[in-house]
Amino acid sequence: MAGGRSIRKRGRRDVPIALLSDFGYQDHYAGVLRGVIALIAPGAKVIDVTHGIAPQNVAAGALALRESWRFFPSATIFLAVVDPGVGTLRRAIAVETDSGARLVGPDNGVLWMAVEQAGFKRAVELRSSRYFLPDQGSTFHGRDVFAPAAAHLWNGVALSRMGPPTRDMERLLPPEPVDHDDELRGVVIYVDGYGNLVSNLPRSRVDALQTRFPTRTLLVRISGSIPIVISRTYGDVPKGAPLALFGSFEMLEIAVREGNAAETLAAGPGTEIRVRAEP
């Protein structure tokens, strides 16, 4: 009981509900999430992480959530709705992490990368209809199930009251890079709003390749492009030129200075990227 009061008090003062979805900014869907939260938890501060995830792109939503959660106050409630399986047998869940962050959304992998970083503590399957909207539809669980659950959590409702416990979660992880002698191979896993191509090649793996071949130069190739040297900043190359660098994801990215790499290089998720140590 004391724990519930503590969460409620802390929530009213400074713990936000953070929204992430693929609803876009043209339709009313994102606004309805905010409206439902305002009905149930009128004092909650709501922060939009983004509603610009590419439609039905669960992996992009998972990456954006992974790169966001740790920059919010402890015990923030994250409501993530990228849900191409809405209305099917996929589960609705709420998760509490070791860091204190709580996450609500479909169990399709969109929550997993953030939960893996934050540390899984416990989870429930959202089944208690008293914490849903009274009249549920089959196509808008963000409105009918997830937003109400997040709002009730903010109000101090215990996770255990929302449904039966579960320790199983759908896992979604980026593909593993492949080492091939003097070459590291990866793929594009995310395209941001600037058209930058984020790969699955972390700085540590690229640094390890350079360590193995300390006298060689690392050159990056994508979509048949000319070899690209790894730069430190966008300003290292002329306007309109392609470059490779480590962005905020700490993954190797391909960009075009003041341009759009996805369009210029005709590349997107799944496009192969190679980093080779060349003499």
Strand content: 25-35%
Looking at this structure, what is the CATH superfamily of the largest domain? S-adenosyl-l-methionine hydroxide adenosyltransferase, N-terminal
| Percentage of residues assigned to helices | 10-25%
Number of helices: 7
Radius of gyration: 21 Å
Report the major sheet: 8 strands, antiparallel
Low-confidence stretches: 1-12
Order of helices and strands: HEHEHEEEHEHEEEHEEEEHE
Report the mean per-residue pLDDT as an integer: 92
N→C terminal distance: 66 Å
According to CATH, the fold-level topology of the largest domain is: Rossmann fold
Structural class: alpha+beta
Task: Name the shape in a single word.
Answer: elongated
Domain module tally: 2
